Every structure is written in structure tokens, then in C-alpha cells.
């Protein structure tokens, strides 16, 4: 299923019992010509801080980037995060788990050799993975794919991902779905209703994981997806997150109270809380989205 994008005001708001999982590039942040050219609007940091508080810490980033890059980009925030598509994961208590890095020498050699021969490519080395970017030279895509596929012959346990203008080699066992499921087994995420927003094919495992547990998946931007909800672009997602933060701030604090059933009166909303809080309670219809 590949639904049409909703406007920001059509998407129900987060409920106080949500566990929020967010992809980074192309979802929270606009795509940029190079990985190091990405800019994070200061208002986004503020929104994420408010959401973290309102959701009792249940906000995590789930990204292909390494943890240290995410921390730098979101400074001073240091959120629970999964990096390198789940190869590394920092829980809410700060504990970091990393899968043992597989042998990537052949892959690195192949990527660097291609890069030296064909200007415009960029190799990104991470713990347990290698990315070969071709955004500056889209016509080189087939060369990137062929070189990495050849390097992956007889390399069981490694897999090739095709992301946005990038091929990435990573351990097959790591994916964003597993990372989200691991968070959901731990406090403060455990027992909450999962929502994951992402933009890329690498986010599809995460979408499937949250939807299989009755949660909500939001695809940001174009392209086929198993996510049942869609927003047009990262700006729309940032606006929606800001509206959620505002409504959750305004809603009466009542711990992890269950959301009202669809159609139920807006219990827990007050006159002071206003229509946004009422929309937050209506969001009980959101998880699963059927
Ligand atoms: O899972 P994500 O948070 O979406 O990370 C996926 C990859 O994102 C980065 O590359 C992408 O964003 C760059 C900056 O906008 C862009 O130049 C590039 O073309 C995109 O593929 C990052 O560099 C990778 O390490 C991530 O795996």
C-alpha cells in the first residue's frame, strides 16, 4: 500500500503513551548534497526536547548514521539512538551495544578504488558498515552497485542496501526493525505505542516492525512503502512534531494513561488544553491506521 500524503493538520497527534522513533536523514533533516552538509534547524532540537519530556524519555533516533554523528548533529541532545542501521544502539540508560564489526577490507578497497578512478564518489566508513555515495555523480550508480556486488561475493553475513543516492554494505542481521523491537523491550519504551517515521527503503523494516505490534508507521516523501501513513517532506514532519509537542505540553499530565478509544469522548482534555489536545486524544485511532 502506498497512500497519498496527508496535510499536517490531517495527521492525528501523538498520544501521551507513545514511543516515538525517528529516522534522521530525509526525515528529521532535509537531504543535503553531502553527509557533512546537513543542517538541523534549532527549532527541531527544541521540539525534540519537549517531546522527550512529555513522553517520559520515550523518543529515539533510528538511523544509518553512526551514534557520534547523531549526537553531534542533535547537540546538546543525546537521545537513545540506533546507529548504522542497528549495528550500534544506545539505550535510554546510556548503555551502548555494538555488533562485532565484520571483515570489510574487500569492500573498502573496492569502494576506494572506484572513488579514486571516478571523481564525484564519496566513501563513508562506519563501525561495521561502508557507504558509497554517488549523489554528486548520479550517472555512476551502476558502477557503484557492480563494484560492491563483486566485493560481496563469498561474503556471507553482509548485505547491500540501496538508499538515497548511496549503496551501503552492512551486516545482514542488523536492521532498523530489530533496533526498534529492542528499544520496545526496555524502559521507557516498554508498554508504549510505537510510532516510526522514515523516508527511505532502509526504513521499511522499521515500518513493518511497528505495524506488526499495532503501532504507526509514517513514510516521509515519495516512493512505495508498507507504511500506512504518509507526510510530504521533512518540513511537514517537523511541523507535525512541533504541534504534537505543543498539544502534549498542554494536555493534563496523567502518567502513561491509555489513550481514549476511537470515537470516545475526549477524556483527559480540558478546555484549557484546547483543540490540539483533543486531536491528540483522537489519535487513538492512529496506531495501526486501518
Ligand atoms: O537512516 P538515515 O538517518 O536516513 O541515514 C541514511 C544515510 O544518510 C546519510 O546519507 C544520506 O543523507 C546525505 C545528507 O543528506 C545525502 O548526501 C546522501 O545522499 C544520503 O544517502 C548518511 O551519510 C549515511 O551514512 C546514512 O546511512
Automatic annotation (TrEMBL):
<dbReference type="InterPro" id="IPR036412">
    <property type="entry name" value="HAD-like_sf"/>
</dbReference>
<dbReference type="Pfam" id="PF02358">
    <property type="entry name" value="Trehalose_PPase"/>
</dbReference>
<keyword id="KW-0378">Hydrolase</keyword>
<keyword id="KW-0460">Magnesium</keyword>
<dbReference type="InterPro" id="IPR003337">
    <property type="entry name" value="Trehalose_PPase"/>
</dbReference>
<dbReference type="InterPro" id="IPR006379">
    <property type="entry name" value="HAD-SF_hydro_IIB"/>
</dbReference>
<dbReference type="GO" id="GO:0004805">
    <property type="term" value="F:trehalose-phosphatase activity"/>
</dbReference>
<dbReference type="InterPro" id="IPR023214">
    <property type="entry name" value="HAD_sf"/>
</dbReference>
<comment type="similarity">
    <text>Belongs to the trehalose phosphatase family.</text>
</comment>
<comment type="pathway">
    <text>Glycan biosynthesis; trehalose biosynthesis.</text>
</comment>
<feature type="region of interest" description="Disordered">
    <location>
        <begin position="255"/>
        <end position="290"/>
    </location>
</feature>
<protein>
    <recommendedName>
        <fullName>Trehalose 6-phosphate phosphatase</fullName>
        <ecNumber>3.1.3.12</ecNumber>
    </recommendedName>
</protein>
<comment type="function">
    <text>Removes the phosphate from trehalose 6-phosphate to produce free trehalose.</text>
</comment>
<feature type="compositionally biased region" description="Low complexity">
    <location>
        <begin position="258"/>
        <end position="290"/>
    </location>
</feature>
<dbReference type="InterPro" id="IPR044651">
    <property type="entry name" value="OTSB-like"/>
</dbReference>
<keyword id="KW-0479">Metal-binding</keyword>
Amino acid at each position: 500500500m502506498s497512500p497519498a500524503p496527508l496535510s499536517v493538520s490531517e495527521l492525528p497527534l501523538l498520544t501521551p503513551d507513545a514511543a516515538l522513533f525517528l529516522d534522521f536523514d530525509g526525515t528529521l533533516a532535509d537531504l543535503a548534497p553531502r553527509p557533512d552538509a546537513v543542517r538541523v534547524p534549532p527549532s527541531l532540537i527544541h521540539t525534540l526536547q519537549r517531546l522527550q519530556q512529555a513522553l517520559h524519555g520515550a523518543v529515539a533516533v533510528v538511523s544509518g548514521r553512526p551514534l557520534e554523528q547523531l549526537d553531534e548533529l542533535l547537540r546538546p541532545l543525546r537521545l537513545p539512538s540506533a546507529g548504522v542501521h542497528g549495528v550500534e544502539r544506545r539505550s535510554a540508560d546510556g548503555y551502548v551495544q555494538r555488533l562485532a564489526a565484520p571483515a570489510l577490507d574487500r569492500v573498502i578497497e573496492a569502494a576506494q578504488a572506484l572513488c579514486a578512478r571516478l571523481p564525484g564518489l564519496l566513501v563513508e566508513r562506519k563501525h561495521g558498515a561502508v557507504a558509497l555515495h554517488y549523489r554528486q555523480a548520479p550517472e555512476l550508480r551502476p558502477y557503484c552497485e557492480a563494484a560492491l556486488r563483486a566485493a560481496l561475493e563469498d561474503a556471507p553475513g553482509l548485505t547491500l542496501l540501496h538508499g538515497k543516492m548511496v549503496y551501503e554494505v552492512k551486516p545482514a542481521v542488523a536492521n532498523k526493525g530489530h533496533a526498534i523491537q529492542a528499544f520496545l523491550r526496555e524502559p521507557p519504551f516498554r508498554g508504549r505505542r510505537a510510532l516510526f517515521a522514515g523516508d527511505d527503503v532502509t526504513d521499511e523494516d522499521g515500518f513493518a516492525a511497528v505495524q506488526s505490534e499495532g503501532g504507526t508507521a509514517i513514510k516521509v516523501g515519495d516512493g512505495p512503502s508498507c507504511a500506512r501513513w504518509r507526510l510530504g517532506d521533512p518540513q511537514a514532519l517537523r511541523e507535525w512534531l512541533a504541534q504534537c509537542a505543543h498539544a502534549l505540553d498542554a494536555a493534563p499530565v496523567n502518567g502513561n494513561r491509555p489513550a481514549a478509544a476511537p470515537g470516545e469522548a475526549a477524556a483527559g482534555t480540558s478546555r484549557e488544553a484546547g483543540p490540539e489536545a483533543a486531536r491528540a486524544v483522537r489519535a487513538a485511532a492512529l496506531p495501526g491506521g486501518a
